């Protein structure tokens, strides 16, 4: 089991390692959300990250901590799109090859983007967990390095650099809100921030159509059940059995929320209207949660993580109601 202090230290090391390969994304205050909630709401703009998602941080840290002889063999991942693109970008830094397994539920635009980046794409199963199993087996058979989207200590530390930057950019945050899929982003970010701000409130949120980690935390064990279609494809799917993020999330998350598809779509539309920039469904989950909580957040200084911007044209039209 990873200790929280150890993970926080690993985040600092990851920041030094990856800083010249990833973008230090800006923060900006949201007058719209601040007025709607009575809170001081700041946006951490990972939708501006290279490859369009925070996933680049974890993948880059994992690749750069892999021994040189193993790097040359290549890397394997399972992904609905964002993690795969991140691994492709990170592997290119060290001139290595990457193979990405994607579930049949992955958004077509993200799959095509992977192919355009030059990675080998393999379609496997209707859920992320199925793709993960296939990817792990393939990596073991070929003696390649498997890079989990969340179930990997180096990946979690890389994602946690979001929290390190928040600490440097937002004065005395007391609340952080982020979407929850496999738990890498929330675990890494919360581990770092809670060491600096012990009273920090960590709010994790998922689409009600695919809330496997949240339901697992409620149950006290990792559950296995199918997910329904969701705009938040970046957080969709199951959680790998034995995932190290489960215990981290159990210890670090203070409050857990789910939001409906209509709330996610509404948050996406309203965010674009007020901020004139693009976010994906997973980021809209966090926005929807803040809007749902409303005045319950009054008086707090909130860091809201906008985890990505990768949404295909068809899914965006669906969300905007412009089919």
Description:
This protein has 15 helices and 10 strands. It is α/β, with parallel strands linked by helices and 323 residues long. The strands form 2 sheets. Strands 1-2-10-7-8-9 form a 6-stranded mixed sheet, with helices on both faces. Helix 9 crosses helix 10. The model has no long low-confidence stretch (mean pLDDT 94).
Summarize the structure.
The protein is an alpha/beta fold.
Rg is 18 Å
Q: Can you tell me the CATH class of the largest domain?
A: Alpha Beta
Low-confidence stretches: none
Tell me the strand percentage band: 5-15%
The strand line-up of the biggest sheet is 1-2-10-7-8-9
Give me the strand/helix succession: HEHEHHEHEHEHEHHEHEHHEHHEH
Question: What is the residue-averaged pLDDT?
Answer: 94
What is the architecture of the largest domain at the second tier of CATH? 3-Layer(aba) Sandwich
Keywords:
10 strands, single chain, six-stranded mixed sheet, 2 domains, 323 residues, Rossmann fold, 15 helices
Map the helices and strands.
Elements: H1 4-18, E1 27-29, H2 31-37, E2 40-45, H3 55-64, H4 68-73, E3 75-78, H5 82-93, E4 98-102, H6 108-116, E5 120-123, H7 128-142, E6 145-146, H8 153-159, H9 161-169, E7 175-179, H10 184-196, E8 201-207, H11 212-219, H12 244-252, E9 255-259, H13 261-275, H14 281-293, E10 301-306, H15 313-320
Parallel strand pairs: 2-10, 3-4, 3-6, 4-5, 7-8, 7-10, 8-9
Antiparallel strand pairs: 1-2
Helix pairs in contact: 1-8, 1-10, 3-5, 3-8, 8-10, 9-10, 10-12, 13-14
């Amino acid at each position: 089991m990873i200790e929280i202090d150890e993970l926080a230290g690993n985040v600092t090391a990851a920041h030094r390692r990856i800083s010249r390969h990833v973008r230090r994304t800006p923060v900006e205050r949201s007058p719209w959300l601040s007025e709607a909630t009575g809170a001081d709401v700041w946006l951490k703009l990972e939708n501006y990250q290279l490859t369009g998602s925070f996933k680049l941080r974890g993948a880059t840290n994992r690749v750069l901590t892999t021994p040189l002889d193993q790097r040359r063999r290549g890397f394997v991942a399972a992904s609905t799109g964002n993690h795969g693109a991140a691994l492709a970008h990170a592997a290119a830094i060290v001139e290595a090859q990457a193979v990405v397994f994607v579930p049949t539920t992955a958004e077509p635009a993200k799959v095509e983007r992977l192919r355009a980046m030059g990675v080998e794409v393999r379609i496997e199963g209707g859920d992320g967990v199925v793709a993960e199993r296939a990817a792990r087996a393939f990596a073991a058979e070929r003696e390649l390095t498997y890079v989990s989207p969340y179930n990997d200590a180096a990946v979690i530390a890389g994602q946690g650099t979001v929290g390190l930057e928040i600490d440097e950019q937002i004065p005395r945050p007391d609340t952080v809100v982020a979407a929850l899929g496999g738990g890498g982003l929330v675990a890494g970010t919360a581990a770092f921030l809670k060491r600096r701000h012990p009273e920090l409130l960590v709010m994790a949120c998922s689409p009600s159509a695919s809330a496997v980690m949240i339901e697992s935390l409620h149950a006290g064990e990792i559950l296995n059940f199918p997910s329904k279609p969701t705009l938040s494809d970046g957080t969709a799917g199951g959680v790998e059995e034995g995932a190290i993020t489960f215990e981290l999330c159990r210890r670090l998350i203070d409050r857990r929320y789910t939001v409906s598809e209509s709330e996610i779509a509404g948050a996406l539309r309203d965010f674009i209207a007020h901020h004139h920039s693009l976010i994906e469904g997973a980021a809209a989950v966090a926005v929807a949660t803040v809007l749902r909580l409303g005045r319950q957040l009054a008086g707090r200084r909130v860091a809201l993580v906008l985890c990505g911007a990768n949404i295909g044209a068809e899914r965006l039209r669906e969300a905007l109601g412009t089919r």
